Amino acid sequence: MTGISEDDFQNILSIQNKCTRLNLNENIYGTFAEIGAGQETVRHFFRAQNPKGTIAKTLSAYDKDFSDAIYGLDPQNRYVTEARLKRMIDYEAELIEQRLSRQKYPNKLFFSYANTVATIDWAKKYKGHGWLGIKFQKEPKQAYSEIILHVQFHENNASQQQISLGIMGVNLIYAAFYQSEDPKVLIKKLYDHLSTDKIEIDSINFRGPVFKDVDNRLMSLELVKEGITEAVMFSPNGNNILPANVLYKKNILTLRGSFRPVTNLNLQMYMASRKLFLEQEEVNPDKTVIIFEMTINNLKAEGEIDEKDFLDRADLLCASGQTVMISSFQEYYKVVEYFSQHTKKELGLAMGVDSLIDIFNEKYYRHLSGGILEAFGKLFFKSLKVYLYPMRDPKTGDIITSKNLKVHPRVKELYNFFIDNEKVIDIEDYDEELLEIHPRKVYEMIREGDDTWETMVPGLTAKLIKEKNLFSKEKASQE
Question: What is the pTM for the complete model shown?
Fold first, then answer.
């Protein structure tokens, strides 16, 4: 993590002091269940002052049969999953309520902390990952709240990964009780005495009465804003989802845009590129996912990110049943690299001609030692295809496709190479009238109250914009 001032650094409690403060709080009391990587979190509490003040029980059901006997069989015989983590914290919270009388302990704030983790393998092929979670009360007898997160390890030694896991576990428990008023602050505090070079949070969800006003999509956004992870996803129901689970061994078609709002042009591009992508012999529709991607740079186009503006866009995409990704990838080759970490299947990018022109702009690759050639090697060495939607030249009125697009002479041969090798596929099934739609103008019409915009967006989108008063000046001023 960056951006921590010297004063803030000096004010960060040590891990031992965090454990001591929790141990000395006579009301905080709970269980620790850690499977897979050992008793890394509870070890800190045992070494701090007065561990009996906090620890009701600790266990490590390391053997799979023991774990199944306690928490139930997993349908896919997997143990490092969110479902397993949820069963662990639910089971342990219910157990502590059964075994400790509320009459005897009327002021206790119960919690159950758990993690299920796989550290780096002996061949160092897989770095390891895991789930951490806490179910806790901030007031006696209060309904439980939850914080559940997924981490990716980046250290190359299992012992180092276990140390980082233990530190983050302590940070999570401490933050739940003492820093949960502002979830954005809580996310930062999870990295006390840690860095993203060691451990990366790529999914986090808050639930329960303590977080009743929290929108988890904003928490996803915060992970990318703070540089904690490169990309996050949320499902059509608005919940944060783990990218690795969504993308694993899937064919992936992605559309990048501002989606402010989704226009008929966006919809046509989506439908036409989807049809062409699924027509590929290698693409199994049942193992295909379509991603609508927005970048942080796009969200920051007018300065600082407007969270309500972001949620307006997200609401529209979710309502239309789309899976949404927020990323820090300015260049397309980074998107392809990211997807390639999770799948070896077919990849597709749907874009307009203006985006393809940007891809061939050398200024985006000056930071690479190999320049544009290195970038394009990363972009196209996989089985990737670009599905290109035409545009109308604003000066001549001509329709521009890959066949008549003019690029800079320095990259012309490179461009021709990819055209000749059918890496760029023109979308021929297009509507000329839609080429007149410009998302920025549609947004401005909505802001200015010009009803003409309604003819330029899908029916459901128009209905939601009007019902929820999305993107309007009045809404912005009220907020």
Answer: 0.89
